[in-house]
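Run log, item B.
One chain of 333 residues. Sequence copied directly from the ordering sheet:
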Amino acid sequence: MEREKVWRDLGSFLKKKKELLGAALGFEALFLIVFYLCDLPWGPYIYGTELLAAVLLVWLLADYRRYRIHIRELRQMARMAQEGFAGACWAESLEEELYGQAVSALQERTERAQLDLKRELEEAKRYYALWSHQIKTPLAALKLLIQEETPDRSLMETELLSAEQYVEMALQYQRMAGGTDDLLLREYELSGIVRKAVKRVAPLFIHKRLGLIIGEISEKVVTDEKWLCFVIEQLLTNAAKYTRQGSVSVLYEESCLVIADTGIGILPEDLPRVFEWGYTGLNGRSEKRSTGIGLSLCRQMTARLGHGIRLESEPGVGTKVYLELFREKFDIE
């Protein structure tokens, strides 16, 4: 194996020096023609040829030694790159230096991609651990309700809605991981999207005996109907979840769809972090049915759609969520 490497390296070196060797042979042929045509004595030509050959041979041997050292460093760097680390290697030319810079840039990009993938996998693992724990709650409640002689139909519909929402949340999480391929941006009637979301969460409002006030909404919006409907549904569910009495309003004000409730509100120290992944806050922990994923997904999805989302809240008074539906550009990656 080592002998094969030596011969391969020698062949590569001679191929690299073929222009120099060709030029040396060309000059020898030229001098041969000149000596022949001028009928000069052959002694100086022979001595000159031997001297040139000796100098050329010494130079080639020294250059081949440097070449072999360089090749060994390159092979070592290739082995280190396979193990996830590439060291620096001196370049013999500007071309090799540029190649080295390109390889280093590609390696850095690969390392960043690996770190991003590791982070995403860890995040997905945490999410599905929370998700699998939370979805057991409505399923267990449904199992108990079915065993009753006269099951509470309203409560069953509410628990079934919770289970369906958890499943939909998992699907949306997968779609988010898949990028923007699932997006279908078109102009829609905003009122139609709101009606679809309201129809989905109606059992929850009926069970909790909460009022739902829908203002006049006549605007059109460029969006993805499925994604925006999911966001509105999540916001309505949160509003109903944390509202014990009163009502929830859906209004359109100053290019924003506003979802306002008369619930328990959010503490000032929790307000800056409600859109963080996995953050539940005091209200979420007290309810014991919050994954801290819903609002984070809403923030990511609205950003992909080119929309914005912000929140105002006062403890004991209620919460307002503003969906900013008109932006100058779409933040699509």
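Observations after the first pass:
- The chain is about 65% helix and 10% strand.
- The CA atoms of residues 256 and 324 lie 5 Å apart.
Flagged for discussion on Thursday.
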